Amino acid sequence: MNGPQAPLLELRNLVVRYGSITALHGINLTVQAGELVTLLGANGAGKSTTLRAISGLIHPAGGEIFWHGGLINRLRTERTVKLGISHCPEGRRVLSRQSVADNLALGAWLRRDKAAIASDLERCYALFPRLAERRSQLAGSLSGGEQQMLAISRSLMARPTLLMLDEPSLGLAPRLVAEVMAALAQLHRDGLTILLVEQNAQAALTIADRGLVLEAGSISAAGRAEQLLADDSLQASYLGAN
Amino acid sequence: MEALLQLLFNGLSVGAVYALFALGYTLVFSVLGVINFAHGAIFTLGAYFTYFLIGGAVGANGLMAGLQLPFALPFWLALPLAGLGAAAVALVLERIAFRPLRDRGSDPLLALITSLGAGVILVNLIQLLVGAESYSIPVETLESLPVALSIAGAKVRTVQVMLLAIAGLLLAALSIWIDGSRSGKALQAVSEDPITAQLLGINSGRMIQIAFGISGFLAGVAGGLVGLSVSIAGPYFGIGYGLKGLGVLVLGGLGSVPGAVLGGLIIGLAEACVPAELSGYKDAVSFGFLFLVLLIRPQGLLGRPQANKV
Predict the structure, then answer these.
(1) Rounded-to-integer distance, Cα A47 and Cα A239, Å
(2) Can you state the percent helix, strand and coil of chain B, rounding each to 5?
(3) In the predicted model, what is the mean pLDDT of residues A99-107?
(4) Which tens digits make up the pLDDT trace of A107-135?
(5) Phi-psi category of residue B191: left, alpha or beta, with phi > 0 → left and psi -120 to 50 → alpha
(6) Looking at the complex, does the CB of residue B200 fall below 8 Å from at least one CB of chain A?
(7) Most A CBs within 10 Å: which of B30, B178, B195, B200, as the mutation test of the A interface?
(8) Report for A29-43, A226-240, B17-31, B227-241: range of highest mean pLDDT
C-alpha cells in the first residue's frame, strides 16, 4: 500500500498476450478518484484488452495493476467486482432471456444492502426512464439503445467506485449516442470515476477530463481532453472523422 | 377405463424417472455446454446407496462381500441421504473430471470424453466392490404403507404413486428455484453468458458446482426410486436409463427444463403403451418415436432453434 495519496487505479508497464500475440506492449495509465478518463484508438488497438485485464477476465503477462495502491494483477473477476470495479462490456451483453428488472437485480449480485439496492434501482430508472417503462419486458426484446442503457444501469447496480465502459456508443444512432454520453456526464458530475473506452473520440472527449490514445498496443498520445480535441494532427491520424 | 388408468400410471411413473434423469443432464449442460456421461453411473450409485442405507447386505462377490451397515434406516430417510451421497460423488467428479479441463481452457468437448471415462471407472468400481449381481430393495421398507392402492378402480402399486409424487415435487421445487430465486437467476445468467455473469460478480465455478450437486441429487433419488420399483439390476443398470435420459433430453429440447419434463413423460407413456408380449421392443418404440419427432423438429419439442454463436 502506498498510502492515501495513491491513485484509484494505476497501470504500470502492463503487458498482455493472447498466446503468441502481444496485445499490450507495456502501457501506463492512472485514473484519479472522480476523473472521467477516456481511452481512444482504432479497432484492435488494445482498448478492450486493457479493460479485460483490469477486471481480471485476462491476467497480464507483465507489469502491474494497482487499486488504491494495492496490487490486483491476478484477482479473479468476482473479486475485482467486490473491490468496486464494474466493467460494462462491449456489445452490451444483456441477459436476453431475463427481464429488465432481473438484469438489474443481478447487477447487485454481490450486495446485501436491500434498502440501498432499491434506491439505486430507482436512480437507474430516473437516469433512463425508458428502462422503468420496460422493467418487466425481456431484455432481448429491447432496442440497441435501450440495451445499452440497461447494460450501463446493470453495472451501476454494483455501486462501483470505478465504472469501466467498453464502447457504449457502438451501433447507436447519433441521438442515442448523445443521450448515453449525457447520462455518463451526469454520473461523472455526481462524483463517479469513469474509464471510458471509445472509438467515437469526438463524443468521448467532449465529456472527458483526460484522454489517452492507444495505437497497436502502446499509448501514442495523452493529454487533457480539450488539448486532444484541438490537436488537428491527432484528429487526422488516429481519431478519424467520426 | 381401469386398464387405461393403470397404463397412464405406469407410463407417468416411468416417465417421471426419465424426466429427473434428463433434468440432471440439462442442469449441467446449461452451465457447461456439455453432456455429463457419468450421470448414469451416479444414478446407479444412488440406487446402491439406498440399498445399503436401508440395511441391505452385500452379496458373495466383490471386495465388500457380506458387509452390512450396523443400522437400517427407513426408506423415507435413506432416499434423501442416498441423494446427498450421489450429490457428493457428482461434486468430486466435477472437481477431478471437469474443472481441471476448464481451468486449462480446453475445448468443452474434451469434458465429454473425461466424463465418459469417469462413468466407466465408477461402474467398474461398483462391480469391484459389490459384485455384478442384482439387488432388490424390498417393498417392506415402506413399512406400514400398503403394497398397492386402488385409485378409481385401478390397482396401482404404491411405489409408482410415490415415484410420481416425489419426482413431481422435485421437479416443481427445481423450477421454482431456477425461475424464482436470486441464485436460480444467477445460474441462468451463467448459462446464457458466462463472461457477463463473471462481470456481475457471479462466481461461475460455484454455480457449476451447484448444478452438479443438484443434478447428482436428482440422479441419486431417481436411482433409489427405481431400485425400489424395479430392482437394482447390477452395476450397469444405470446405462440404459442414461441412454433413455439422453433421448428424453433431445426430444424435449437441449437445455430446456420444461422440455426435459415433457420429453420424459412422453417417452414413459409411449413405452407403457407397448403391450407386455412385445416388451422387448420398448426401446425401439421410444427411440423410433424420438427419431420421428426430430425429423420434424430438430431442436426438440421445446428447444430453441440453434443460433450460430458468434
Answers:
(1) 14
(2) 70, 5, 25
(3) 97
(4) 999 999 999 999 999 999 999 999 999 99
(5) alpha
(6) yes
(7) B200
(8) A29-43
Cβ of A95 and B202 within 8 Å?
no
Task: Give the integer Cα–Cα distance in Å for B174 and B187.
Answer: 12
Q: What is the pLDDT of residue B281?
A: 85
| Of the partner residues B182, B192, B198, the one whose CB lies closest to the CB of residue A95 | B192
Q: Give yes or no for B202 touching A (CB within 8 A).
A: yes
Across the interface, of A78, A87, A89, the residue whose CB is closest to B202 is: A78
Mean residue pLDDT of chain B comes to: 88
- Is residue B303 in some structural domain? no
Q: Inter-axis angle of helices B2-32 and B204-229, to 10 degrees?
A: 160
Between B182-192 and B2-32, two packed helices, what is the crossing angle to 10 degrees? 70
Predicted pLDDT at B307 = 47
Q: How far apart are CA A87 and CA A164, in angstroms?
A: 5
Burial of B129 (0-12, 13-18, 19+ CB in 10 A): middle
User: According to the model, what pLDDT value does residue B310 have?
Assistant: 35
Could you tell me the sign of the dihedral formed by the alpha carbons of B119, B121, B124, B130, in that order?
negative
B78: number of Cβ within 10 Å:
23
By C-alpha distance, which of A67, A38, A65 is closest to A52? A65
**What's the half-sphere exposure (Cβ side, CA atoms, 13 Å) at B230?**
19
- The answer to whether residues B241 and B229 touch, using CB atoms and an 8 Å cutoff, is no
Q: State how far residue A231 is from chain B, nearest Cα, in angstroms.
A: 36
CATH of the domain at B202: 1.10.3470
- Under an 8 A CB cutoff, do A97 and B186 touch? no
Candidates B35, B60, B9; CA nearest to B243 is B35
Give the distance between the most distant pair of CA atoms in chain B: 60
**Residue ranges making up the domain that contains B190:** 2-296
Phi, psi of A48 (to 5 degrees): -65, -40
Residue B305 lies in a domain: no
Cell numbers placing B113? 470424453
pLDDT band at A177 (very low <50, low <70, confident <90, very high): very high
Residues of B in contact with A171 (CB under 8 A): none
Who among A89, A97, A98 is closest to B199 (CB)?
A: A89
Domain count, chain B: 1
Does B310 map to a domain? no
Q: Which residues of B fall within a CB distance of 8 Å from A107? A: 200
Between A86-95, A151-160, A203-212, B100-109, the lowest mean confidence (pLDDT) is in B100-109
Cα angle vertex A85, ends A82, A87, to 5°?
120
Chain centroid to CA B1: how far? Answer: 31
d(CA A212, CA A222): 4
Pairwise CA distance, residues A139 & B193, whole Å:
13
Instruction: Establish if B308 belongs to a structural domain.
Output: no
Query: What whole-number distance in Å separates Cα of residue B188 and Cα of residue B174?
Result: 13
